[in-house]
Amino acid sequence: MKKAYLGIDIGSISTKAVIIDEKNKILASEYLWTEGNPMEAVKKVLRSLEPQFKKKTYQIVSVGTTGSARKLIGAMVGASVVKNEITAHAIGTTSLYPDVRTILEIGGQDSKIILIEDGVVVDYAMNTLCAAGTGSFLSSQARRLGVEVEEFGKIALKSKKPTNIAARCTVFAESDLVHKAQIGHRKEDIIAGLCKAVVTNYLNNVGKGKKIVAPVVFQGGVSKNIGVTKAFEEATGCDVIVDPNSHLMGALGVAILARKSKKEKEFSFNITDMEFKTIGIECQKCANHCEIICVYKNNQMIDSWGNRCENGAIPIKNKEA
Amino acid sequence: MKVGIPRAFLYYKYHYLWESFLEELGIEYVVSPYTNREIYQQGTIYAIDEACLSSKIYLGHVASLLGKCDYILVPRVFGFGEDGSVCTKFQAIYDVVNNTFRNQKIKILYYNINPKETANEFRSFLKMGKFLGKKKAQITRAYLIAKQNQKVNQLMDMKRQESLLEKDGMKILLVGHPYNVYDRYIGDPIIQYLKSLEVTPIIADLCDKKAAREASFQVSETLPWAFNRELVGAIEIYRKKIDGIILMSSFPCGPDSLVNEIILRRIKGIPILNLVLDGQDGSAGLETRLESFIDIIKIKRDEKDED
Amino acid sequence: MKTKEPCRVAFPRFGNYHIPLEFLFTKGLGVEYITPPPSTKKTLEIGSKYSPDYVCSPFKFNLGNYIEAIEAGANTLVQTGGTCRLGYYGELHEQILKDLGYDVKFVNMSKANYRNPLTFYNEFKKVNPNLNLAKVSSALLTMLKMVECIDNVDDYVRQNVGFEVHDGEMEKIHEAYLEALKQVETKKDVIKTTKTYMKKLKDVKTKKPKKLIRVGIVGEYYTIMEPFSNHFIEKELAKKGIVIYRWMNVTNSILHYDGKEQKKVIKNYVKYYMGATSMSTVYKTLEWAKAGFDGIVHVKSFGCTPEIDAMPVLQKISADYKIPILYFSFDSQTSETGIQTRLEAFYDMIMMRKEKRK
Question: Are C354 and C308 part of one and the same domain?
Answer without folding.
Answer: yes
